[in-house]
Amino acid sequence: LLIENHLRRALSRNELLLHYQPKVDSRSGRVLGVEALARWENPELGLVSPTRFIPVAEETGLIESIGDWILRTACAQNKQWQDEGIPPIVVAVNISATQFRRNDLVRTVCAALEATGLAPQWLELEITESMLMQRPEHAEAILRQLAAMGVGIALDDFGTGYSSLAYLKRFPVRNLKIDRSFVQEIHTAPSDAAIVRAVVSLAKSMDLDLVAEGVEVREQLDCLASLDCHVYQGYYFSKPVPAALCASLLRQS
Ligand code: G
Ligand code: G
Ligand code: MN
Ligand code: NA
């Protein structure tokens, strides 16, 4: 209840902000995109993790206004980077299960793009396999509308849920993000390398983009490269950082 009461006022008190984590091509070293990650800094509670406050936002309905703010802020930031002359990149925004279930997601996304002037091709939404599988017909209809607009869809934490390959083919998904649990020991655990090899092959045959999450050390990166997976996110390149710091990473890239 304490956290809920504070969260109700978080937006009007400017306590929410977004950090951005680069997505990098290990061959060129270039930043291809960024993932927006919400942060909440409350004077009494301190820094609260999204793993704590997003579920509260979902239970209380606050996710409607907070999710809308996250989308708009990420789109506005990306548009601003473009206006500053930084080569265009994709910004990815995490969508919660409750946001995805609602009937107004497409409208909310349209409104954010219109309000900020960001072209749809520079926005990607990250959803999870389980969100697709709960109401497949609903999911398919939403994803088709978003794809028709030109907005990209990424499957986050890929490999930890249970999407059937038939569904993967049916949904207009652009990008698979290999969950970091498979990357963590990829250089020492042959079974993890085998899983990643299978996902690489799946992505190739279905013409999907691929990102490895949670790359922290050089050995993981080398192993991913040997498996022909060249795009990654992780502390090895950069943790999620404030927009200003992210802009300087983008300018250097
Ligand atoms: O960045 P961090 O490791 O603290 O994120 C923890 C979890 O919170 C991750 O699973 C991430 O997807 C989720 N998360 C971070 N920002 C957002 C957001 O803006 N919206 C939603 N729905 N989830 C987020
Ligand atoms: O569920 P999702 O993939 O959206 O979660 C993203 C979360 O992963 C963010 O909270 C981010 O801080 C975290 N993250 C990003 N890179 C790394 C990494 O290299 N190692 C670890 N342990 N976490 C990471
Ligand atoms: Mn994510
Ligand atoms: Na993930």
Automatic annotation (TrEMBL):
Compartment annotation: Cell membrane
Domain EAL, chain residue ranges per copy: 1-253
One GO BP: signal transduction
Main location: membrane
Keywords recorded for this protein, A-Z: Cell membrane, Membrane, Transmembrane, Transmembrane helix
Top-rank taxon: Bacteria
Cellular component terms (Gene Ontology): plasma membrane
Name of the protein in question: Diguanylate cyclase
Source organism per UniProt: Noviherbaspirillum denitrificans
Span covered, complete protein: 631 to 883 of 895
